[in-house]
Amino acid sequence: IQHVQPVPEELLGENARIFRSGVKKLGLHGEPIRRNIEGCRGCGVCAFGCPSDAKLAMHLTYLPRAQHAGATIYANTRAQRILIEDGRATGVTALLLEPTTREPMANLTVRAKVVIVACGAIHTPSFLADNAVGNVSGQLGRHLRIHPAAAVGAYFDEDVYSWRGTLQPYYVDDWHESLDVMIEVTSSVPGVGAGTFPGMGLRLKEQLGAYPKLASAGLFVSDTSSGRVIRRAGKEPVITYKLNKHDTRRMVRGLAHTAEIFLAAGARAVLSGLPGLGPVTSKSQLDELKEEAVKPGSLRLTAFHPVGTARMGADAATSVVGPWGEVHGVPGLFVSDASVLPGCPTVNPQITIMAFATRTADYLARHGSSYF
């Protein structure tokens, strides 16, 4: 299962190598990202599912182990209700779906002494709310935390082909402790990246023609802002989030630092993503930036790694689950996903989520007499 290693030099891609040259010229610290890979070909389509299975995803690691240990896995299944008897979770009802149309084909009922919900920070609170559990404290769906993120592009005279190589191969952490900003080299395949270009007609055509010369990197901030996931019966939940001024200033500073690295690497023009600032060709343009004047709504942001909407805590009055992930007031019902994290990690939370899941599993194994 574990083949964690730094991205090899041959898989970094020219995008990361160019960025690394700017990092070194500025005397900053950067390294290849450590990834759980085996046999990676650097095709750059990681976000769409690895065609060579080099990412070692769940279907290659944990699911086979679970099946070997005796687990029955139901694919194309949608959980509907948590069965509760005498105040205790006793199972789940679900719909078996037709794989292509996703239309319900049959009903499924699973009886179990322990039920674990792992729908993620967006859908776990909605699922619990649909079943009228987990909201004794009134905190279910609240305290949504994310990693607000933005991208910076840079044009070079030579071809970069930024989509060739590992998708996220390299990071810079010089402002991780001071600003909670993490910079990572990343890119998207042309068919996706083209949709982010502004304009139309001849201008857009010229931009797309220059796409091979465009390098890119992204950054995210460990937020102090918060949001909420609001349940809608029978529909997708509504997500609200308000970026505060503190996080906005850190985003602006991160964008400026990323642009400076590209300039040091020899970019002829940098698209900083900063409002009112056209193509950046010199550091002096960044030095004149007044970050406090930038409003949250003027930034073009995406968001990753939602957490916190079923927060963990010992006090049932202020949290949704207890210290081991068990929902307050419902014995035998556990949550094991990003929603239990009470705050926003400063890095990608994948390992943290896996560690908490392992911790909950270990707790159940050690206290089996109370549940099984």
Give a nutshell description of this structure.
The chain has 372 residues and is an alpha+beta fold. It has helices at residues 9-25, 62-68, 120-130, 176-179, 190-193, 201-209, 245-264, 283-287, 350-366, and strands at 4-6, 30-32, 34-36, 77-85, 88-97, 104-111, 115-117, 145-155, 170-172, 181-185, 214-221, 226-230, 238-242, 269-271, 302-307, 333-335.
Description:
The protein is an alpha+beta fold and 372 residues long. It folds into two domains: 14-33 and 144-305, Glucose Oxidase, domain 3; 74-140 and 308-370, FAD/NAD(P)-binding domain, CATH 3.50.50. The protein contains nine helices and 16 strands. The strands form five sheets. Strands 2, 8, 9, 10, 11, 14 and 15 form a seven-stranded antiparallel sheet that branches. The longest helix is centred in the last third of the chain and has 20 residues, at 245-264.
Instruction: Enumerate the spans where pLDDT stays under 50 for 5 or more consecutive residues.
Output: none
Strand share of the residues?
15-25%
- The coarse overall form would be globular
Give the biggest sheet. 7 strands, antiparallel
Integer average pLDDT: 94
CATH architecture of the largest domain, by name, is 2-Layer Sandwich
Radius of gyration: 23 Å
CATH class of the largest domain: Alpha Beta
- What is the terminal-to-terminal distance? 28 Å
Write down the secondary-structure element order.
EHEEHEEEEHEEHEHHEEEHEHEEH
* CATH homologous superfamily heading of the largest domain: Glucose Oxidase, domain 3
- Give the CATH topology of the largest domain: Glucose Oxidase, domain 3
Number of helices: 9
The total beta strand count reads 16
* Number of discrete domains: 2
